[in-house]
Structure formats: C-alpha cells, structure tokens
Specification:
The complex is a heterodimer.
Chain A lengths: L1 H11 L6 E7 L5 H12 L4 E7 L1 H9 L6 E4 L2 H9 L3 E9 L2 E6 L19 E4 L5 H12 L3 H4 L3 E4 L2 H10 L4 E5 H6 L4 E6 L9 E7 L5 H11 L2 H9 L10 E2 L4
Helix pairs in contact in A: 1-9, 2-10, 3-4
Chain B lengths: L1 H32 L5 H13 L2 H12 L6 H8 L7 H25 L3 H9 L4 H12 L1 H16 L3 H7 L9 H10 L3 H32 L1
The chains are: A alpha/beta, B mainly alpha.
C-alpha cells in the first residue's frame, strides 16, 4: 500500500490536466461507470472518459497510439501483448468472472455444457474469438470438452459479449455464452444454464494496465488502485464479479 | 477466407442490385407520375436509409425480420427458418441501403421525360404498360443506369446494417467490408490492406463498367 502511494506520488507528478481516458472491456459497461462515480466522490476534480469495446479491439487501438491512460481488460492475454511491446507501466488484477450458458426466456437451458450438442441448439452465439475474450474462453472450453466438432457449424460470432447477450434476449439464437455478470443484468428475460466446467478454459481474470505514454499515469494508477480498494470491490462484488486471490501491482521491467 | 468473402460480396451485390433495379424503378415511376395524398411522406420514408445511421436501419431490420420480429416471427414459427445470420440477410441489408439511390435516380429520370412521347404512343393505340415498357423506360434508361450503378456500389460497400442482421460469420455472411473490419480489429494489417485494395479495384471496375453502360445509353438515345 505504501509502495503504491509512493508510486502514485511519483507518477502523479507527470500529468497536469485532470482528465483520463479509460478503455474498458464491454463486460464492465455499467459497473465501471459506478466505480468512476464513487471514485470522483473520493477524489473530486478528475474527469474520466470511458471508451468500451471488446478487449481485443481496445488492444489494437492502444497499439496504434490511442491516447489511453488506463486499460481494463477482461483477460490477461491482451495485457501480456501490450507488455511485450513495452506499453505497460503498471498492471494489476482486480476481478474474476465465470462463463455461463444462457437461453432465451421461457426455454430450458441444457443440463451441462455437453448438452449444447443437442439438435435444438441450432444457433449458438459466442463472442468473436479473435477479439472478444468471452468468445475465446468459450471456444477453449468447447475444445477441451471435445464439443467443438459437433457445434462449430452452429456458432455465430458477436462483436462484444453484450452483443451476444442481446441475441439471446431477442431469441435470435438458441443459446449464448456470456459472463455470469452479464447474464445477471437481464435475468428476468433469459434462462441461465450451467457454468463452464472449471479447468475447461483459462481462468477469467480482469486486469488493469496503466499505459506507457499516458497523459495522466498518476490518476490512472489512482483509479486502478481505487478499483481494488474497499468501495471499488464492494461495487464489483455487488455486480457479481469475484475478487481474484492476487491483486498486487506488477511493474514490468523497462 | 478472402475468396469466399469476395464471392459472397459479388453475389450479394448482384442480387441486391437486381432487386433494387426492378422495385426502385417502379417506386420512382409512382413518385414521378402519380398524384396522391402522402406522396412526399412516402418519398421521405423511402429515402430514410440514406440519412439514418446504418445501425439504426439494421436495428429496424432485426425488429422486423428477426425470430421474434413482426414479419420474421410468424415465418420462424411456421417454417423454423429465420433470415438472420444467413446470406439472404446480406442481400436484404444491401438492397435496403441501396434502394433510395435507385428511387431518386428513377424519379428524376421519369420526371425529366418529355411526356409528349408518351401521349403520342398512347394516341397510337399503346396501352399503359406497353407505353411504359416501349417508350418511357427506354427514354429514361440513362438516369436508370446511373441509379443501378450507384445501387451496385452502395450494396457492395454495405457494412453497418449487414453486421446487425447477418452477423459476421466467415464463409457464410462475411462480405468483403466485414472481412476488412475483422482483419483490422484482429491486427492483421496485411490482410486488411489486400482486402481493401481488392474492394477498391472491384468498385472501380463496377463504376467503369456501369459508366460505359450509361454512355452507351446516352449515345443511342
């Protein structure tokens, strides 16, 4: 904690304008707005702009020089890619999630993930695995469980996990794979099925990264720290996110 | 992936343009020649896809044609088939977006016709349909050809509404513009560049080909 504060003090000296741009994974939409509101109550005078898209899309934007201060990714992988390019000043885990099967309201979800191979699931929506971490986790899970061959031709890809969720709500697909936190948002309009078996996919850990070249790295770090503090964790937990065991800051060697 | 996207794009553009050419010519004729209440309102409604964000048009298409849509719902319940996420949805999206361009061109072309030719044809015993097919249509062909060119180019480049109603499924509903989007957001710059050059070349070829068609029509009229 003291080390963090010292870091905040050192990095904070760099920025002047009290404005930061946060690029947040789509599954954080709504939650992050609440966290930012609470943050601004604690630390008035900071303007926070929020840009949401699939984590993979946000990654490409940052790689190409988008003026982002803080990146909140739904997967460690995106942050690893940025770190390999020397674009991460500091990173930290702040939340974990689970992947669930949902079906349109009034229909019965499969008993297990394997149940998705039943013929009544003609269309199964997942996030575009190229850019949407939730889609990548889903595909990984199908592969591990030996389901991919049976259902690959029935998969349709959404541009964000919320896009996939919307298809399930509208009944455009027979099943969709989303995060438990997304499903909870529309629990009255869908039926929630089984959780992806543990170990069938990489752990779903959200990470925040202060971006190299950020205009306000100090404020970005402060917001990231706030996300993992009492009020931030309270909001995340209330929305159904889990708190991962390891939430320490990591400073990549420059 | 590139080849299938190109093939799908050409097929979608050809079908959408054919559809739009027929229906758009008819709608343009009605707007140019018939006096009726609400004509300007109808004109405004038909032109909406031109000014609305494509995502809004796409949203309306989902609400209309989706599995629970006003039109798509009964079809799905009756046949178990739904247009969403199929290549037919790409054609519909392309046609809807290109439609206003065809209607506008057709309306202007018919309005500028010298009506004396039509009156003369009618006085020589031609019926309405015969006058339309043998006099009005040939005389308006230059304007109509321009409409077809624009419609073809527009449907070839259609992105937003297609993404909403047809999804982005490689090999099935992924047209060239969607493949380019996919390549860009996946960081595959080389593929994005190649696909963009390909789409640009195809567009230029379409415009030149259609332009020749238009000039040919002008000379012979």
């Amino acid at each position: 904690m003291i080390a963090t504060l010292a870091l905040v003090a050192i990095l904070g000296a760099a920025g002047n304008d009290a404005e930061i741009l946060v690029s947040a994974a789509s599954s954080l939409r709504g939650v992050i707005d609440e966290v930012v509101e609470a943050y601004r109550e604690h630390f008035p005078g900071t303007d926070v702009a929020i840009n949401t898209a699939a984590s993979g899309v946000l990654l490409r934007q940052i790689e190409r020089g988008a003026p982002v201060d803080l990146f909140l990714s739904a997967s460690r992988e995106e942050v690893d890619v940025l770190e390999a390019q020397g674009l991460v000043r500091a990173r930290k885990g702040f939340a974990a999630n689970r992947l669930v099967v949902v079906v349109p309201g009034g229909r019965s979800p499969p008993k297990s993930f394997e149940g998705l191979s039943a013929e009544r699931f003609e269309r199964i929506a997942i996030g575009n695995p190229g850019t949407v971490p939730a889609g990548r986790y889903a595909r990984e899970s199908f592969e591990t469980l030996g389901l991919l061959d049976a259902i690959e031709s029935r998969l349709v890809f959404g541009e964000t996990v919320r896009h996939v969720l919307d298809w399930a709500v509208r009944g455009e697909v027979d099943a969709a794979l989303v995060y438990a936190t997304d499903a909870a948002l529309v629990a009255d309009r869908i039926a929630i099925g089984p959780i992806a078996p543990p170990g069938s996919h990489t752990g779903i850990f959200y990470e925040g990264a202060v971006i190299e070249g950020a205009r306000n790295p100090g404020l970005a770090l402060q917001l990231l720290e706030f996300l993992g503090s009492g009020p931030g964790e309270e909001i995340l937990s209330r929305k159904g996110f889990m708190i991962p065991p390891d939430t320490r800051f990591v400073i990549p060697p420059q | 992936m590139i080849l299938s996207a190109l093939r799908l794009s050409l097929l979608v553009s050809a079908l959408a343009t054919a559809l739009v050419a027929v229906v758009g010519t008819w709608a343009g004729w009605i707007l140019a020649r018939r006096e009726f209440r609400g004509r300007e309102l109808l004109d405004a409604l038909l032109n909406l896809p031109l000014v609305l964000p494509p995502t809004v048009t796409g949203y309306y298409l989902i609400v209309l044609l989706g599995r629970q849509g006003f039109v798509g719902g009964p079809i799905y319940r009756g046949t178990g088939w739904s247009v969403t996420f199929t290549w037919v949805a790409c054609v519909i999206a392309g046609a809807v977006m290109a439609f206003p361009l065809m209607v506008r061109s057709a309306r202007v072309a018919f309005e500028q016709l010298d009506r004396r030719h039509e009156i003369a044809a009618a006085s020589l015993g031609h019926g309405r349909l015969s006058t339309f097919l043998r006099v009005s249509l040939p005389l308006a062909r230059r304007g109509l050809a321009a409409g077809v060119i624009l419609a073809a180019a527009r449907s070839l480049g259609e992105f937003g509404a297609t993404l909403m109603i047809a999804g982005n499924i490689p090999g099935r509903t992924q047209t060239l513009p969607l493949a380019i989007y996919d390549a860009v957001i996946s960081g595959e710059d080389r593929t994005a560049l190649w696909l963009s050059v390909l789409l640009t070349s195809v567009s230029v070829a379409v415009m030149i080909g259609a332009g020749r068609l238009g000039r040919g029509a002008r000379k012979s009229s």
